[in-house]
Design a protein that fits this description.
Eight copies of one chain form a homooctamer.
Chain A (H helix, E strand, L loop, with lengths): L6 E4 L5 H12 L5 E4 L3 H10 L4 E3 L4 E4 L14 E4 L6 H13 L4 E4 L7 H6 L1 H5 L3 E6 L5 H8 L4 E5 L11 H8 L6 E3 L5 H17 L5
Parallel strand pairs in A: 1-2, 5-6, 5-7, 7-8, 8-9
Antiparallel strand pairs in A: 2-4, 3-4
The complex binds adenosine monophosphate (AMP) (4 copies) and magnesium ion (MG) (8 copies).
The site of one adenosine monophosphate (AMP) has 8 residues of chain C, from strand 1 and helix 8.
Chain lengths: 214, 214, 214, 214, 214, 214, 214, 214
């Protein structure tokens, strides 16, 4: 496991009791502990026992940051998390909180949709200057193609299941991203904000250290 | 049938002989005659007998313009035909030649891809000022969403089968277009450049006349 | 944004509070405000605060018509909204209310199914004389093909998810419409009555003004 | 096997030699012999040895009618074989020749498409008065729904693989037919003209005899 | 509409009030009235007003048999309704009650599965002697192929959505039936017991009358 | 690798030269060598250099049986290879030759189709008495269900791509087999006769030895 | 039916009353009785009447072991049941309890995932020495390939529906297993732990007896 | 465009003449020029005119390395390109040559399949010590999951279309990779070796420079 990375628990399908017993065991290692896909109700049950955990509503993440693992204050660069608006917020926030928990600087840009390309240009500079971008998009999923065309850093595309009809629960956005004609884009599973951030964080950390120190 | 519109023959799966006998019959009506999806070889065979027909290589269209049906010279406005480059040219030209044969002014813009959004802005004004746009796109098929976001006229989206792998012969582009978050976009079948132009021409002609004269 | 068109809010997935705050902001611009896909319960909560809004039950639309934006009384022509019966009513009404909110004359014809072709012919004249038709159909989705064959104006086809078994949630109707052998048909997403009407309204307004005045 | 029915050989994937040896064996039984899906070249090789066989080009059927099995001349009623035009001719003729070989009167109506509903009404009476109809259709496959709506006898629907793009090799037409809102329609495999005719012939023969004589 | 056939109402998606008002109108014509896909609760509401209607629990059918339309007592032959057991009972009973309501003799055989081929042979004679068979099957949907191989009358195959996993809600059974190597099988939509019976009844009535009286 | 089993080379996509160099290396180990999916032409090129190899036309297998590895003559039991007829022969023979090369007794039964269930009962005893059965079937793929219902030994089902239309290149048969309601059936990839036989041979060898001697 | 095997009832979709009446009848035969896919609530209702039945929570199985059918104590070998962790536990336990009820020794290994290949090697010996393995896996379903590569006994692969997004309810794992490049793997339906165990038990029993005693 | 990166031409669907005229223009910029997906024949035609280009047979790449752009000799680290054997070689080499042309050190490991997990462990150290890995896999596509589980650097997964039957032209491998339970994996389109390498090269260059110098 990557040094300094938190212990990670996939909360979906686990009971509060199961999660409590897992995180009790993990906490001992001293690493931060990140529980994803945990509903508010379940999180509250866990927090009664593990009061040091903080819950992020939109992201549905439960996180314990061990104070000893403070994020270094000399981090260079940042990870963009981009999406078009409120519908994709849940997945974008799962990515953002995860990336922060993995020790990265994060820059949220949440109002840049393909159908309103002008807003995207208001953020032109900050989009380009990131180390890596995570682009979250539902419906037709075209945003990563546009971003990939204007940046020269790696883009991790995260399709979401937002949409209806011929969207087929995110299949439309997934195919769009896999077929992008922009270079430098790779794709993770539908709604997998965590995975998008994890890949971005690995890249971000490589850039931090530079190859010399490997 | 729309007045002044040409007679239309779908050439695919018909022999040169069958096409010759059909267009001989149609010519009598005095309308222009448009044969789509006809290969160069087949067209040459037809032209030996019907020398007045002209063949458009890229579009694979064979066309007879009866001189009596000259396009009026007081046409207002134009139809944009947009695509990203050489791969989608065949379908774009099928649309362009069809729209001209249906009596419309056509404005070709063939280098505006989503992955290089800057080139698109070089054509900003002329894109916006059209009466209607036909947007042809393969691979991820995101171009109509971008165009739809910057124009206030109707957009007819034509997915193409250009691509490979998870493109699934144009399915990817088709789904993208059906799920577009821009308003004012409707979609025709994969590779149906003819259909895209036909819809655009109906709209263009309505705009010509204005509702008053209906 | 098209001049004179209302502000549009997609209600699905937004809370009553979120909608209230959005429409309060939008109302300031003086344009009409149209909220689609909003359930009766949610609409009632909004209406307590924004009493000037009217709710359309079947369409699940909440609408504020600013009296200053009265529909001009010299409109020429109309948009047909056609469907086969009660099952597709929700989507047809979403289209009809939207088209009216976009300033168009609307002509509802709600009893013309493919399986009972005779009823369709009782409306023959009024179907043909429209400026543009929105055809809503579920199950096998064949109605747009039949309408497209008897009119010379543009047809916007809206597949619905009504059906069961091999219908696959509207996929059957969607494919039917994309493969129509009638010319002049373009398609929007499954259940997208709003989109069908939006496209039709763009065309209708073009026909109103005539190209001369653009 | 139904009494009086021919022996049937599925020619696809069998060599001329294999077919010759099979039909030599079958001929002994005295029944007519019907070979479907046999190309012209292969059929010619067979005919050199079995000169009494007749080849039907469009249907790609090779048939031996034993003179002793003459079709009774007091047959009541007939089977409609309907399609929209030249593209579906191969499948329609496979159905027509098969139905005749199975001892039925056949009435071909080959120019009735959904997109040109008027021509269909020119045949209104003869369509209705048949005992059973086989309706062959490609692209959107809507014809069986229209026919099913105007007749009160059984309709066997045969989707064809004619089309392109979102047609998916006949899937579109197949789904259309399975989802038909007209009652009295059942469906066979894509391009299975033989199967459509076989089902129709079983029904036709039941109607001939009447239940009393069973 | 077929003479003597009942008026038919598709109950799904209609409220009790809507159904009551429809059947009140229909009853006036004197024909029997058949309401399919109506839950027990909804049916009870209807029965409070229309007490002469009878509800069939398993089939979820509500039926009014006008005493004046008594089934003739000189019917020849019968329709088999076959299925493998309790899982497919609902669809089989929808078919059986429908066929009876359409004036046919019905023979239920509900314990003949492909995986226990022996039980099928206990019914060998009665299976073969029917006029037409409706074969209902879920999971792998192989029963119609086996029945089709041992009878010489028409078989209407009804796939059901019973199953899980790679069954894909009945797709597996549907494809099986469309690809059957037995001749004389045609297919209706998944779970469409009504449609299976309707087709069978049309055939049964043709056999009743015999062609002479047409 | 299982002791006594041959070395296996997947011939598809390898050139004659590549295959020659591979088998030269493998021959040294003394094991038999089995090359699957090798066309006749390619096999002939190989045989010029490796004359001791024998080619099986229908199975498209090239095999070297080292005389030192003679099949023991005290084998108990046998593997059934079942299919319905000529169309599935290639896959059935790939299975049969493979099973023999893996040192098993093989019993071919190649005329037992679901649509003609009677022929299957002529082989009733020999089908039941095998140690394990490999059942090869295309089109609707129902044969394994029927066999699985009458035997109490394991059945390996091999779907083939034989069929057309809604067969979707073997998908229909594959789904049928995965959804079988008979117990004791497991499935391998479409057209994977080799895999079917390999699984059967592993089971057969277990039965030979009996657990005691493991 | 295999001698000594229990009577098996598929509980899904049957009421407690139906199950009670079925098992009362079956119990008479003296065989053990195994009810699969029965929820805790339903099982409790059954146990009130049939108190001798034991319920297995995770597996959702209700089982009666007739004391007279004690498992022989001289069984050789065992069946591995392998999975990666808690998510696939339900299906793995359905397999394990079934295999035990079918009279087999079972060895559970529930912490061997593809993404943590090291843990798998801690169990290397016991994995290899089994008679047959049942490998349960969701998400990407790669575990059977890895196991198949290190054992020389048959592997029954059971895909589960665990996952989200592009998992498509187990389709991903199913396809992975069917396409495995390891030999000796066959596959059952998604979530079919019962079926996986049934196949394994048939093989296990063959190995017990050895071919000599058949 | 990334500084120092070559100009890239997608050769598929372009004629030799078109390619010649494009590369003549590009060469002027002084950057290296990389033409992907160009057949040997087409490449030879180009080389007659542009003799300084070198052709890579397996990768089907045509490359001009401007001597002035020599790869720096102080590169730290390397990119793994991993695949299981000869079938996936074409895609793996497209990735390897591309990565080298993009100025990266490349380490090819071409014999590590999931079904023979032992060979993978022979390369354990060199696999782990790379900066980033490109994992190419067809059939079940499970290799990236295994690699992702043992490395802590980013993995780019490239599914290939190698396989048959239920492989569905690479869909199986694509889904496997998207559903991987290992973290740190992202995916590109089927057969997109170029794209896999391009993403890896972006990451590799970030690691070279370290964030400080950005
Ligand atoms: N029923 C609908 N279906 C699809 N798109 C819609 C619908 N109603 C509104 N929209 C679109 O949603 C946009 C507003 O989305 P939002 O900003 O999320 O409220 C509008 O501009 C329309 O393009
Ligand atoms: N065109 C066709 N499409 C589908 N099935 C056919 C066709 N022609 C013949 N058959 C079937 O193939 C059977 C003969 O197959 P075979 O014994 O292989 O020659 C006949 O009994 C028919 O059921
Ligand atoms: N016809 C076949 N279908 C599927 N897999 C096969 C076939 N023949 C051989 N194989 C597998 O291919 C492996 C050899 O592949 P290769 O090393 O590429 O020659 C064998 O170990 C078998 O697992
Ligand atoms: N093998 C490949 N697969 C996918 N995309 C490629 C490949 N090779 C080149 N490209 C992309 O194609 C673009 C050039 O396309 P074009 O301008 O049509 O030659 C490059 O910038 C790449 O993004
Ligand atoms: Mg880029
Ligand atoms: Mg717009
Ligand atoms: Mg029209
Ligand atoms: Mg009818
Ligand atoms: Mg039959
Ligand atoms: Mg069995
Ligand atoms: Mg193995
Ligand atoms: Mg890793």
């Amino acid at each position: 496991k990557r040094q300094g990375f938190p212990e990670i628990v996939f909360g979906e399908g686990k009971s509060a009791e199961q999660i409590i017993s897992i995180i009790k065991a993990l906490r001992g290692k001293g690493n931060n502990v990140l529980v994803t896909r945990i509903s508010k109700d379940k999180a509250n049950l866990v927090q009664r026992v593990c009061a040091e955990f903080m819950y992020y509503d939109i992201a549905e993440i439960l996180l314990w940051k061990n104070e000893e693992n403070a994020k270094p204050d000399n981090l260079k660069g940042y990870i963009n998390i981009l999406c078009a608006g409120t519908s994709d917020l849940k997945v974008a926030e799962e990515a953002a909180i995860t990336a922060e928990a993995l020790g990265c600087n994060v820059n949220r840009i949440y109002d840049v949709g393909v159908a309103g390309i002008h807003r995207l240009f208001d953020h032109y500079e900050e989009i380009q200057q990131a180390t890596v971008s995570v682009v979250v998009a539902g419906m037709e999923g075209a945003l990563p193609s546009v971003i990939g065309g204007i940046v020269s850093h790696p883009v991790i595309a995260v399709p979401t299941s937002i949409g209806y009809g011929a969207n087929f629960h995110g299949l439309s956005a997934l195919l769009t991203m896999l077929n992008s004609c922009a270079s430098g884009i790779s794709v993770v599973n539908i709604d997998n904000g965590f995975g998008g951030a994890y890949n971005a964080a690995l890249i971000y950390q490589l850039a931090q250290k530079g190859a010399e120190k490997e």
